[in-house]
């Protein structure tokens, strides 16, 4: 019966793919017909081809990569006046971002936030398990571009890339630059102020050396509804980053990266009938040293890096400031990795790599680890322990060019750990070029996600329940298939993709009964899910200064255990963008729309456990260059003040600022 339901839904979803493909056929026919026309005239329409690195760990032209990769450029980040990762990632139609408890929880192609791996220049980050914290924490002042790889990527990246990868690629200090950007914004009623200032400085190349420095300071005032539901917590954050390069030769470079984040967050809420204040003091240090080589004959990267995260949490009675409870958490992840790429024979570009990762996790929420300890603060006692996990892996990839039209890229990775059974993750992708401007792509990928320290060892008492870790749970796994047709000609570009993902052994907190007055939830492998959908994109560059783009995602996400829709995954999402530049006047205007349709929400305050919501939000930004070095900008998020306390959907947010470049 279950197989019949899944097959029926596959047929329904694939019907959508065929339906939109029929709309795409005239465009394809025009591309094929255009290819037979004058080649010299056609050459005038070809733009510089975009190069990405995340899909294959090599520099590859985007049109050749048999995977779905979206690229967010520095120009797009600037147009949106984006300060944090969250500010820009929401305009990808494959992402749905749900706001809850003052934070934003993203889902990529219907997968949970914890199933998307975030990298900075290919490096993992240590922090909270959930992706929502990083959306608010990662700032963009030193970012060159963001690559979003959709679908399982464990064949190259191992655990955590069950749903995809976000790779934030930072700027290299090859050119002199000095930039300073203050920004201020408030909600329509004047509350919930956002204050930020970001800076980037690069000395360019000085002999063989390069150096860049960047930093930011962000401050957010609390923002709550009349019923004191907090939509935004009080938070201050400071970041600093440094990149140093040294060129041994024109092909070989030493790279030293360092980053620091300090975050203080406070939130007032009710615990039973008592008003309490939750205080989080978080900090993270990242340090990386690597050597890269890129020559016509050989490419390699050898790197070691360390990510250290420190969290201190307190809960105090608001009226007396008496300490009620506290937690301390430290998470350290040293990593050594490397990969080598070399052309073998004539048409094989082979990449071989490996990784060793050691994870140390200790804190007062870790109850079943080793080396137990006790901490006392203001008369309150908290016990904890330490957990250690070791991971090692090796992977192999071959980029095969067959003739002028066919590219086949198989890859496989072996992962092992001292806590879990080994995992083999294969992937294969194919790109076939029907014409120079029309392509068909298909791929299969296997993904997995090892249980996190929280799911293994945590013991988290809340006001009326306890969430408890389980050292016996297994990794989550997924198998994904996708096929797409894409092309471009002149001012037009378009793409349509069908994807299907089968997820098994999903980890959930299951009710395990009562412990005194507390309900106990224990992490277990319990459920399976089938997630499939259709993505369509169309771009139109009307002139050099005016472009229009639109993207649509149809998503069918189901819990196979009970044949119910997964909540917080909209059936429809449409994102449209219009970008206009008047270069002689130094004016820029940008308009975005985000439409969410048939989204199944789980509302804690509602008697009905689930409701269906549709909404549409408009965003606008304007900028004016006063001089070559000085630019004013302003904008409105949620232009028409759409609000909904159930979702919650916050009203209009107005902002403005200055960009100074020297």
Care to describe what's here?
By secondary structure, the chain is mainly beta. It contains 7 helices and 37 strands. It has a 22-stranded antiparallel barrel.
How do the strands and helices of this protein lay out in sequence?
Elements: H1 2-35, H2 39-43, E1 51-52, E2 60-61, E3 68-73, H3 74-79, H4 85-89, E4 95-100, E5 103-108, E6 116-120, E7 123-124, H5 131-137, E8 143-150, H6 154-157, E9 164-170, E10 176-187, E11 194-206, E12 209-220, E13 223-224, E14 230-232, E15 234-247, E16 252-271, E17 274-294, E18 299-317, E19 323-344, E20 348-363, E21 370-377, E22 380-402, E23 406-417, E24 423-435, E25 438-449, H7 453-457, E26 459-461, E27 465-468, E28 476-489, E29 492-515, E30 518-541, E31 546-559, E32 564-565, E33 572-582, E34 587-602, E35 610-627, E36 630-637, E37 653-661
State the main characteristics.
single chain; Maltoporin, Chain A; five-stranded mixed beta sheet; 10% helix; globular
Rg, Cα atoms, Å = 25 Å
Number of helices: 7
Task: Give the strand tally.
Answer: 37
From the spread of the alpha carbons, the general shape counts as: globular
Question: What is the domain tally?
Answer: 1
Helicity range: under 10%
- CATH superfamily grouping: TonB-dependent receptor, beta-barrel domain
For the record, give the distance between the C-alpha atoms at the N and C termini, rounded to a whole number: 66 Å
CATH class group: Mainly Beta
- The unreliable regions are 32-46, 604-608
């Amino acid at each position: 019966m279950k197989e019949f339901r899944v097959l029926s839904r596959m047929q329904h979803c694939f019907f959508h793919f065929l339906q939109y493909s029929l709309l795409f056929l005239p465009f394809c026919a025009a591309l094929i017909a255009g290819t037979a026309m004058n080649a010299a005239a056609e050459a005038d329409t070809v733009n510089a081809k975009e190069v990405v690195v995340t899909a294959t760990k090599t520099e590859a032209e985007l049109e050749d990569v048999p995977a779905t990769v979206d690229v967010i450029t520095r120009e797009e980040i600037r147009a949106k006046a984006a300060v944090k990762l969250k500010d820009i990632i929401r305009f990808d139609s494959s992402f749905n971002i749900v706001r809850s408890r003052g934070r934003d929880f993203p889902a990529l192609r219907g997968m949970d936030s914890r199933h998307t791996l975030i990298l900075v220049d290919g490096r993992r980050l240590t922090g909270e398990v959930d992706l929502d914290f990083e959306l608010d924490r990662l700032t963009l002042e030193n970012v060159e571009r963001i690559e979003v790889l959709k679908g399982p990527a464990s064949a190259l990246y191992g655990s955590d890339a069950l749903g995809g990868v976000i790779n934030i690629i930072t700027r290299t200090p090859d050119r002199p630059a000095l930039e300073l950007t203050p920004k201020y914004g408030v909600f329509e009623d004047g509350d919930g102020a956002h204050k930020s200032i970001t800076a980037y400085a690069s000395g360019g190349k000085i002999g063989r050396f390069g150096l860049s420095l960047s930093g930011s300071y962000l401050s957010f005032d609390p923002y709550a509804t009349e019923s004191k539901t907090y939509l935004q917590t009080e938070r201050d954050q400071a970041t600093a980053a440094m990149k140093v390069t040294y060129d041994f030769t024109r092909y070989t470079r030493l790279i030293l990266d360092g980053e620091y984040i300090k975050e203080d967050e406070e939130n007032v809420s009710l615990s039973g009938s008592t008003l309490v204040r939750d205080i989080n003091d978080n900090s993270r240090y990242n340090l990386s040293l690597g050597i890269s080589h890129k020559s016509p004959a050989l490419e390699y990267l050898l790197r070691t890096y360390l990510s250290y995260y420190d969290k201190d949490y307190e809960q105090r009675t608001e009226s007396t400031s008496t300490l009620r409870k506290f937690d301390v958490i430290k998470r350290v992840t040293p990593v050594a990795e490397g990969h080598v790429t070399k052309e073998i024979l004539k048409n094989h570009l082979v990449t071989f790599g490996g990784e060793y990762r050691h994870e140390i996790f200790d804190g007062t929420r870790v109850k079943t680890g080793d080396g137990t300890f006790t901490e006392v603060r203001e008369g309150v006692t908290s016990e904890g322990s330490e957990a250690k996990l070791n991971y090692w892996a090796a992977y192999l990839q071959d980029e095969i060019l067959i003739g002028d039209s066919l590219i086949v890229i198989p890859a496989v990775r072996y992962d092992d750990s001292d806590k879990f059974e080994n995992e083999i993750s294969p992937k294969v992708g194919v790109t076939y070029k029907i014409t120079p401007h029309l392509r068909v792509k298909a791929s299969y990928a296997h993904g997995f996600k090892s249980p996190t320290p929280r799911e293994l060892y945590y013991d988290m008492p809340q006001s009326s329940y306890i969430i408890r870790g389980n050292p016996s749970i297994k990794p989550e796994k997924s198998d994904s298939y996708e096929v797409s047709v894409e092309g471009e000609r002149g001012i037009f570009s378009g793409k349509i993709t069908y994807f299907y993902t089968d997820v098994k052994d999903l980890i959930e907190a299951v009710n395990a009964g009562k412990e005194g007055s507390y309900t106990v939830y224990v992490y277990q492998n319990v459920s399976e899910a089938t997630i499939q959908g259709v993505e369509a994109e169309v771009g139109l560059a009307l002139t050099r200064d005016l472009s229009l783009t639109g993207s649509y995602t149809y998503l069918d996400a189901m819990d196979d255990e009970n044949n119910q829709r997964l909540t917080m995954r909209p059936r429809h999402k449409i994102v449209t963008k219009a970008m206009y530049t008047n270069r002689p006047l130094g004016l820029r205007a940008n308009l975005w729309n985000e439409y969410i349709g048939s989204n199944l929400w789980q509302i804690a305050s509602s008697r009905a456990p689930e409701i269906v919501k549709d909404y549409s939000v408009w965003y606008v930004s304007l900028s004016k260059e006063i001089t070559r070095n000085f630019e004013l900008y302003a904008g409105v998020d949620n232009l028409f003040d759409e609000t909904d306390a159930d979702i919650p959907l916050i009203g209009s947010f107005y902002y403005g600022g200055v960009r100074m470049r020297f």
